[in-house]
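Hi Prof. W.,

I finally got the Monosaccharide-transporting ATPase prediction working! I wasn't sure whether to trim anything, so I left the full sequence exactly as given:
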Amino acid sequence: MTIERKPILTLQNICKSFGQTEVLHGIDLEVYSGEVVALLGENGAGKSTTSNIIAGGFHQSSGDMTWLGESYSPNSPREAINSGLVLIHQELRLLEHLSIAENVFIGRWPSKLGMISRKEMEARAQAQIKRLGLNIPASSLVRGLSTANQQLIEIAKALALDAKLLILDEPTAALGGAETELLFEQIKRLKEDGVGIIYISHRLEEIRKVADRLVVMRDGNTVEKFDSGDVPVRTIVESMVGRDLNQMFPLIPVPKEETGIEVKHLSSPNGAFQDINFSVKKGEIFGIAGLIGAGRTEMVRAITGADPIATGQVFLNGKDVTPKTPTRSIENGVVLVPEDRKLQGLVLDHSIEDNIAYANLSTISKLGFISPSRIKDYAKTAIERFGVKGVGGQNADEMSGGNQQKVILAKWLAKDPKVVVLDEPTRGIDVGARSSIYEIIVELANKGIAVIVVSSDLEEVLGISNRIMVMAEGKMTGILDRQNANDVSVMELATAFG
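And this is what came out:
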């Protein structure tokens, strides 16, 4: 007689609306104990919304969930945690000035006779981190621990709550190869202990190593389920985007003859970059490559007025426009889409409309006054132009990374700039959303705008650039034409130290 195996968590026809906009259209999902289910999809597919419904952050508009065979509908993250379901966010939320044990038991410290029992707390925390293979005293401060170890401490917090299901949201985003393998080893241990795991990641190659099953989402729908994690990456991506991937990068235009921006002998006060010289033609996409610490970000921040310049000049259409402030740079038509979109690019707890308006107040205002209706109309045009998936009144922090990036592009491009600088334009953005960002970049070049793209993704910088400048240790080591640029030639220049 075969005993039927039952899932610990089920989602049936889950729908979710924010105002008049429905973002989930009937999600179905099952998770069994001791297995890893990878939840995949483009930014905006609905993965985060689904996770938040499971973890009590949102409440579904319709549909049913069960947990351990019982009806389940948490009204808060605390209620979900108490039930044994824990969401571990991509952004770690540990308090660095507290010990490991204090972080593991924060808000529920073991006590005897009204006094916190530090001995018991540290013993119980030690047991959990030992379970994950960490040989660090639980009394140690979190400050100074590696990102990988902090990730494991977040998991230890969940296990101390007797979690039976973990939702890991981009757990390897900040990890290197060795640290990722360490995490995978701990996931294997958790599976052996019967813990169910929902695993969300854009790193599709690692999915094949860690997942038992795959669930693919697209535009708020469950579109594909695979009974194995060993699925070709191309098959996964085509399921995510709903089309064949014949060409990742669009055809890039031929630049005009006129120079758009020119940088001469640029150096920083702190030595982050020295004696940088290059020019970008109108309609050219100029890539900047290099290893971490090469000075790429510091350099583009300087030419857009965000960081100081020690020596050198910036010219626009032959005119000296060397900036001292970001405001002056923007007035001259040179704008920056920064590396950290959440901290530097958007006001996350404000609406899409407001974020677009903040950069365009002089255009939107009439006789010094700004009406809500003008903001709505202005933002609506920008949202439609760049294919932002969202409504104007929606907060920026409710959007996927790809759509947040489109909002940043929308707010600056509404000013009709002459030069657009994009620092890591697709970091943390999935394959499908990347292609739409590339199409926007090409659209800018087609309009005669000089485009500068800084990227750590070698395939990206090779695929989207007319020319590539390579930097190493703050110095430019060469500029390659498209026909002479490949992964070998770029890496040779990127490692040309001294």
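The first helix runs from residue 47 to 54. Does that look reasonable to you?

Thanks,
D.
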